Amino acid sequence: MNPQFGNGVNVFFDDLGPRDGAVVILIHGHPFNRTMWAPQTAALTTAGYRVITPDLRGYGESPVVPGTALLADLADDLAALLGRLDIEQAVVGGVSMGGQIAMEMRLRHPGLVRALVLSDTTPVPETEDGRKHRRELAERLLAEGMKPYAEEVIDKMLAPYNVTGMPEAAARVSAMMCATDPEGAAAALRGRAERPDYRPVLAAAAEPCLVLVGADDVYTPVAEAEALHALMPHSVLAVIDGAGHLPGVEQPEAFNRALLEFLAGL
């Protein structure tokens, strides 16, 4: 599906499960697309939830908007999507960059957020070195394409033992990365470099939050998830063994079990 937003951005998405089910929107990370949530969508719709999985602008089937895609732009796209679907409130979840977009939605559109699900992500703003790295990576992707980058980071996206031990999952993750338009990925990298500090809004949040993290995540280690959990007054923490940065892909059964238990308590 592809609703036309007022700002001219077409966002493709899947809308699955019963129309009267509690709504969960799941936001993919960089440089992936909505298909990464297939195991979660299957489990949640079976349990009676309505699941929205969008392709962010510049990713998957959603067209590229050149330049810089601020996390605020991406969050506004998704708020507009929920508005077009007449959804007044949803559980908002995301992994990595998707988790930061979920935080941005809580900052900009708090009334839409029933609860948060934050997987392998951080609320801390980018450092100066981090900003420089993201901008340089954006230029590199434009110059080289996605394949060299995908090959370089696969054993950080997944735990190294899962790259070899779960070849189908590794192939799926690599294929998503390689299929991403470099210009869309570059725009999001530039925008992510400018992200604000989400800690104040999260510390004041009254909504429940599930914090998930792969036990062997090197991008956002368990210590960062513990700090996020400690920051939020109504959060629970689930550490997923046998996983790196993408536990929903690497250990979907354990991830889904924690997610469904959290949702059942809302």
List the keywords:
alpha/beta, seven-stranded mixed beta sheet, 266 residues, 15% strand
What does this structure look like?
- Helix content is 47%, strand content 15%.
- The chain has 266 residues and is α/β, with parallel strands linked by helices.
- The protein has a 7-stranded mixed sheet, sandwiched between helices.
- Strand 6, helix 10 (222-231) and strand 7 form a beta-alpha-beta unit.
- Helix 2 (71-84) crosses helix 3.
Secondary structure layout plus pairing:
Elements: E1 13-16, E2 23-27, H1 38-46, E3 50-54, H2 71-84, E4 90-95, H3 97-108, E5 113-119, H4 128-144, H5 147-157, H6 160-165, H7 167-179, H8 182-192, H9 199-203, E6 209-214, H10 222-231, E7 235-240, H11 247-250, H12 252-264
Parallel strand pairs: 2-3, 2-4, 4-5, 5-6, 6-7
Antiparallel strand pairs: 1-3
Helix pairs in contact: 1-12, 2-3, 4-8, 5-7
Task: Compose a concise summary of this entry.
By secondary structure, the protein is an alpha/beta fold. The protein has helices at about 40-45, 70-85, 95-110, 130-145, 145-155, 160-165, 165-180, 180-190, 200-205, 220-230, 245-250, 250-265, and strands spanning about 15, 25, 50-55, 90-95, 115-120, 210-215, 235-240.
